[in-house]
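User: Run a structure prediction on this.
Assistant: Running it now.
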Amino acid sequence: MATKAEELEVKQGFSYRVEDGVAVITFDLPDSPVNTLSPETGEAFLRVMARAEREPEVKAVVFTSGKKDSFVAGAKIDFLQTIKTAEEATAISRNGQEGFDKLADFPKPVVAAIHGACLGGGLEWALACDYRIATDSPKTSLGLPEVQLGLIPGAGGTQRLPALIGVQAALDLILTGKSLKPAKAKKLGVVDEVVPAPILRAIAVRRAKELAEGTLKVDRRHGQGFKGVAANGKAKGLAGFIQGLANKELWAEVALEDNPLGRKVLFDQARKQLLKKTRGKFPAPEKALQVVRVGLESGHKAGQEAEAKAFGELVVSDVSKRLVEIFFATTALKKENGTSNPDAKPREVKKVAVLGGGLMGGGIAYVTSVLQGVPVRVKDKDDAGVGRAMKQVQSILDERVKRRSLTRREATAKSALVTAGTDYSGFKSADLVIEAVFEDLKLKHRIIAEVEAVTGDQTIFASNTSSIPITELAKGSRRPAQVIGMHYFSPVHKMPLLEIITHAGTADWVTATCVEVGRKQGKTVIVVNDGPGFYTSRILAPYLNEAAYLLAEGADIAELDRALVEFGFPVGPITLLDEVGIDVAQKVGPIMEAAFGKRMAAPKALEKVVADGRLGRKTQKGFYLYEDGKKQEVDSSIYALLPHGTERRSFDRAEMAERVVLQMVNEAIRCLGEGILRSARDGDVGAIFGLGFPPFLGGPFHYVDSRGPAEVLRKLEHYHDKLGERFAPAPHLVEMVKAGKTFYPR
């Protein structure tokens, strides 16, 4: 009969079985698709380990997972949300450290048998074991992604990983939050062995016995503090800049000598480079760097104490709260079908056709073939367009081969899924046709008619338009219920958002199918209702307009860009204009003005710029100079083409940023009030993942809540009085302030 302690262990998901002198402890958390960590889980695990220590017939332990594709996915994020104070979070971190210290000091060998996601606290758990074996499955990945939630590892990970694999490689993982495939994990020394999944358990038991018998000796030369840095070869990401602090010779010297002066130079320079990337907006990477440094200089115990304190501070920080909210928002979106009908089911898409072979068409073909994994037929008007599409797909595959995320054989197999031509051959069997041609309604209507003439009755027609209402496109269709918008962002293979646009007559199964396609393509998907510019293009228009107004008033181009980068955007609005195409922005302007009136009217500031042939990066001529496609400094000759001429005015950066950002935020609130958006959550996700709105601010709606709706309204009214109709506050905001409401529950 089971004891109460054993019953609790089972309740927390632990089963215990002795095989040939090895205790196999299997973690399979009940009623959960993945294993996650909580204080209760830790306590139950320690009780199981105590049992293994007591039983004399047990010579070693294997720790593994009972989940199909998950080892341990990390801490329970919703549990972290219940923590109210930094002191409470610090205490939880110390408890986790203490538990894993006990595991690390366990008197019998412990082997971690890893299959599936081994992330965050899951990897910290494995790091405390004596030996780690991972499967070679593509489902298996290892990493410390806490920084992506505004946190740092809090159960000893900042100390054990550098000790195991060296400072440079450890920082590359800790500061970026990226994960490793099994082969790379073995190369770095994160795992000791990689085996096929079917034999994982048997090999783990064998290795545990060999460790207990002393016949297996583990080589731990990867770590050893700074010396491990020099031995670990090339690392990318944030650690890449650490490698080149001054030059390779200096790096090798300070690494090999391991002296206090070398350490100071290293970490001081690393912090400077880190701040260039985070601009001080994301405190977690900087704290991680500090904590690693403490451990290296003052020892494991001091490092863990610094880790616990920093973890506690970060858990209750506003930045972490916003990033965690984004995590939950995107997780919730993955469970939705994009309609108000939960019973709407997606239909299988076995083949996709793409119209248009430009950068967008080629990018869509790539994510469809390589990520979604279905055949793609691309059509363009001429051989040159066809060639561009194929070249686009191949160039992305070549880059992945270069980065070793694909083998050459795998890339060749993926590229074989893409074919192209100048006619509609191959379209007959397509379940989904995605159109990515010029923003011209007549052209799109003609294409819809041509596509419907050569495809089946159930084929979905999706447009990648960024501004033309889907309702207008559907008027040119014999099957309007199967017309929908699928708005991708450039470059398609890198930008994470897909904005799906439905008109009043779009069938639910069509929406559900396109949402599922987007997810398989690796996209975060939001569904919005139809209207000119939909959501993302609509809120981007006044943002760029205001930047153009500032230019017309004499603002310095570089200063204006710098103001928005300091605010938290990845690039400034003028750089973005060059990227999008100055002519494209100018064409969208009249569409928006026709739909929304003078408040959306674009300034005339860019007319002479476009007339001069300055269309941006694509013509190597825009606001900035370009060399081999790379942006250089501002082209000062462009000022002569702007209304204010070569004379420039001095603007306060904070005021410039506020003017531009408030335009985007105000328009987002209008979209919610008019029903274009289904929720504030979708609006925040769309702005962050599609337009680069600073994630640490949580999106436009969280930004308003944090400043206070009344304060945002006051600012809009101030600029409305000063600059005119384009700053007229959104009626929905006025109503909310009157009612004393916020967009999210307080």
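Residues 536-739 form one domain.
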